[in-house]
Design goal:
By secondary structure, the chain is an alpha/beta fold. It has 16 helices and 13 strands. The protein has a 7-stranded mixed sheet, sandwiched between helices. Strands 1-12 form a two-stranded parallel ribbon. The protein binds 4'-deoxy-4'-aminopyridoxal-5'-phosphate. Residues 29-397 form the Aminotransferase class I/classII large domain.
């Protein structure tokens, strides 16, 4: 007998499962539109040149050691991450109403923030968008949330944000529910609320005393402009809303496996900060005790140096432009083929993903017949396209939907 006998098999994590199917496929025509990672025109991962520069400088620094960081992380990184998301002239920064905590990428930031809300503040009800990133439910459940709910987000027929039903659902949420919002480049739909729609969301959040939790995993990567991508967060702050913000530096710095993340907390009364930090230290202590330094030092070095920062802006512009070109190319190829349906949504959506509208059956056909790998909800990562395969993918879509 074994203590481990009878463990039920968990469902596979879809995105990794599909990626593995791609890797195992031997047909040279295969195309990988699964995992949300940037790829170059050659289909290769990209280390940002500015990251290489910062890494070389760190490696040459003989004063560098591998001592533990403080529990709440590397302070220069926290300072820069906070400025990046709130804006250097944020009223919350000027009024000292901000706490910054380095965490393990976006996922760890979500986890630490959710656990703090559940354990310390006693908030146990969360609403996330339908659909949302596949990990939100699991993270909030494991952090101690007991009421997991979704609000309407997507209008499948018109392929846009269903703002009326979104507002209706938030209006019906019990006071003090945590409302999880994607700061920009909504995953998986690629469609964000307009500024007017954000204002409506903010209004109901305030009126119904809901708690705001922003998840921003694509700042700068979405539009090419980090300030534009943080507009919604900064608007909510202007409106006096308290919040926690989970930031990931995986995509916008290409530091996926370095696990660079940050939790920024904006409070209305700065006298709560010392006790907040003391409790947060216990949450972190029990999870990972203190965070890794390498990626945080890279990000801090780049963001604190105007010349390096400019190189980073150039890199995120290059990435977001290539993605936009692939959106245009995919749409143009589909329209040229006269593929049934409408395809403007591909160029209206932003960030890395397009929610194509393809059904699960169509996705399975694409995988089996054409060796084009995507998620069963129809989400594609545009980065998997390049000038050499986009026509092939369009033809595969065309044959599939006819
Ligand atoms: N939130 C969203 C919406 C995401 O898409 C991602 C990345 N897939 C994350 C958070 C966090 O990812 P990571 O932990 O790799 O930073």
């Amino acid at each position: 007998s074994s203590f481990f006998a009878g463990i039920p098999m968990a469902a596979p994590i879809e995105v990794f499962h599909m990626n593995n199917l791609y890797l195992q496929e031997t047909d040279p025509k295969k195309v990988n539109l699964t995992i949300g990672a940037y790829r170059t025109e050659e289909g290769k991962p990209w280390v940002l040149p500015v990251v290489r520069t910062a890494e070389a400088a760190l490696a040459a620094d003989e004063t560098l050691n591998h001592e533990y960081l403080p529990v709440l992380g590397y302070e220069p990184f926290s300072k820069e991450a906070t400025k990046l998301v709130l804006g250097a002239d944020s009223p919350a920064i000027k009024e000292d109403r901000v706490i910054g905590v380095q965490c393990l990428s976006g996922t760890g930031s979500l986890r630490a923030g959710a656990e703090f809300l559940a354990r310390v503040i006693g908030l146990k009800t969360v609403y996330y968008s339908n659909p949302t990133w596949g990990n939100h439910d699991l993270v909030f459940t494991n952090a101690g949330f007991t009421s997991l709910n979704s609000y309407t987000y997507w209008d499948q027929i018109n392929r846009k944000v269903d703002i009326d039903n979104l507002i209706k659902d938030l209006d019906a949420a019990p006071p003090k529910s945590v409302i999880l919002l994607h700061g920009c480049a909504h995953n998986p739909t690629g469609m964000d609320p307009t500024k007017d729609q954000w204002k409506q969301i903010c209004e109901v959040v305030k009126r119904k005393n809901l708690f705001t939790f922003f998840d921003i995993a694509y700042q700068g990567f979405a539009s090419g402009d980090p300030d534009a991508d943080a507009w919604a967060i900064r608007y909510f702050i202007e409106q006096g809303v308290e919040m926690v913000i989970a930031q990931s530096f995986a995509k916008n710095f290409g530091l996926y496996n370095e696990r660079v993340g940050h939790l920024t907390i904006v409070v209305n009364d700065k006298s709560v900060i010392p006790s907040f930090k003391s409790q947060m230290q216990l949450i972190i202590r029990a999870n990972w005790s203190n965070p890794p330094a390498h990626g945080a030092k890279i990000v801090a070095k780049v963001l604190a140096d105007p010349a390096l920062c400019q190189q980073w802006f150039d890199a995120i512009k290059a990435m977001s432009s290539r993605i936009r070109e692939m959106r245009a190319a995919l749409r143009a190829n589909l329209e040229k083929l006269g593929t049934p349906g409408t395809w403007e949504h591909i160029t209206q959506q932003i960030g890395m993903f397009s929610y194509t509208g393809l059904t699960t059956d169509q996705v399975m056909h694409l995988v089996e017949k054409h060796k084009v790998f995507l998620l069963t909800d129809g989400r594609i990562n545009l980065c998997g396209l390049n000038t050499k395969n986009v026509e092939y993918v369009a033809k595969a879509f065309d044959e599939t939907v006819r």
